[in-house]
């Protein structure tokens, strides 16, 4: 379970979030930055100026900020993840409008899962953006969906020799993944963050699961009777996303 540091430094967190947004989205204005962080424009301007100073950002002729030399290679990559993120964002925002909760797009790399896009809801009590964050795959909804695609030998090889405290108990993980395969969706109750429930379905390309789309909410708003309607809504949105991916 990932916890924020006991003495979090808000300015550092804001700067890192802006660097992540630039890396993933490629362009940002001062007004955009202020709105995304929920800070004054003067604060956003100072944060962006520091990113420019440290070569994480550059300012173009239109006064927008773009990835600097430190981020440029990743930001301008035309990888599958970049195309997937671009195609997914409109669907994520529509899901937020429909479900009223924050929605994520997550991919797996080895035994970790990275949140590559987030559409945050506007409810006062909500699950905040995890965009750019990395968690152990078995602790996340999409991670479980993507691990469920692996055969027994692949799963064993993935975790062979992993002695970290957060390493999964393999028998328990196999049972959980078998349940995910049967259901076609995953439910995560407090695995990555206490008090948060997430429900997700896989995104497929060429028959293989390449990502997961999940909706996250405070556990106090989760009602098990809504599970099937939530899964149906996610499945419909993902089918539209997969159709868009086929056109890329």
UniProtKB/TrEMBL annotation:
DNA repair as a keyword of this entry, yes or no, is no
Show the PROSITE patterns listed in the entry: HTH_ICLR, ICLR_ED
Pfam entry (one): IclR_C
> What highest taxon heads this organism's lineage?
Bacteria
Q: Where is the secretion signal located?
A: none
One GO BP on record is: negative regulation of DNA-templated transcription
Q: Which GO terms describe its molecular function?
A: DNA binding; DNA-binding transcription factor activity
Q: Which InterPro entries match?
A: GAF-like_dom_sf, HTH_MetabolicPath_Reg, Tscrpt_reg_IclR_C, Tscrpt_reg_IclR_N, WH-like_DNA-bd_sf, WH_DNA-bd_sf
SMART domains associated with the record: HTH_ICLR
Q: What are the protein's UniProt keywords?
A: DNA-binding, Transcription, Transcription regulation
Ranges of residues in domain HTH iclR-type? 9-69
Q: Where is the IclR-ED domain?
A: 69-247
Q: Could you list the residue ranges forming a coiled coil in this record?
A: none
State the name under which the record lists this protein. Transcriptional regulator
Which species is listed as the source? Saccharomonospora marina XMU15
